[in-house]
Amino acid sequence: MNPSRDRLRIAVQKSGRLSEASLDLLRRAGLSFRASRDKLFLYGENLPVDVLLVRDDDIPGLLLEGSCELGMVGRNVLDEQRLAGAGAVSPQVCTALGFGQCRLAIAMPAELPWDGPASLAGRRIATSYPGLLGQWLREHGIEAEVVVLNGSVEIAPRLGKAEAVCDLVSTGATLAANQLREVETVLESVAVLAQSPRPLPPALAGIGDSLVARIRGVLGGDGARLLMLRAPRSALAEIARLLPAREAPSVLRLDDAPDQVALQALCGRSLDWQHLEALKRLGAHGLMVLNVEQVLA
Ligand code: PRP
Ligand code: ZN
Fold this sequence. Notes:
The chain is of the alpha+beta class. It is built from eight helices and 16 strands. A hairpin with a 5-residue loop joins strand 2 and strand 3. The mean pLDDT is 92.
C-alpha cells in the first residue's frame, strides 16, 4: 500500500454481470469519471475517488492487501475467499447493493441421470469455487473430484474435462446455451459493497465515509416516495397512523389557516392509491407524491 496515496480506490468488475449496475450506482452517488487510455481505470473527476476495473475474483485480494479501499463484488466471491484463504482476516461487508442476485448452482448435461446429490459421487465437477463446492460436498457426504477452472466453466463437460459444473447462475442463459440442466443450489448470493480490513489511511477515511454514506443514500432512496398534503390539524393522529412512513412526518403550521397543517412524510414504495383515497376521506387535500432520488440520513 502506498501511504502517500490521497485518492480512494474502489474496485469494480471489469466486464460481467455486475459491471453496468456497479458503475451506474457510482454515478447515482454523484461520481463522474473518465476512462484511462488502457480502460483499466476510471479517474474520478469531481471526487478524489478512482475506479479500478478488474476481474471480480481479484477483488477480495485487492481489498486484503490494501490496494483498494472499497469493492463491489458478489458475496459468493467473498465467501469463497474466506474459505480458500488461510488467514483470519476478510474484507468487511458494508451493505448489500440491491443487484447481482444469483446462485451458485450445480448443473449437468441433460442426458446424465439425476437422482439427487448422490448422483454426483465419483463424478468430476468443474468450478471456480472449490471452497464453496468442497464445503457443500462434505456437508452432503459426497466424494467427487473438484476440477478448478478460472473461466469458461460451462464448456468443461463438452471438452470432456468434467461431467458436471458448479457455477454462478443468474438468468440461466449460460446454462441453457450449453445444454446444462441446473440440479442443486449451493449458495444464494447478491452484490455487496465490501471494505478493506485494513484501517484506512487518514487522508482517505473521510472520503471513504462520505462515499459509503452516498451509496447508502442512493440505496435508501430506492422506491421511496415523499408524500405532501394539507389536512385539518384534528386529523393528524389518524393520518400518521395510516401512512406507510419510514419516520415521523414533518408537520408545518400554516399562517393563513390555523386549524390546517401541511405535512411531509417519507414513505416506502407501498404508498398507493388506497392510502391517498383514505387520506382524502380524513380531510386531506392537495395531495402530492414525489419519487425520491436520494436520501442522506
Ligand atoms: C457468471 C457465470 C456465467 C454467468 C451466468 O459470470 O460465470 O458466465 O454469470 O449468468 P446467466 O445465468 O445470466 O447466463 P460472472 O459475470 O460472474 O463473471 P465471471 O464468471 O467471469 O467471474
Ligand atoms: Zn468471477
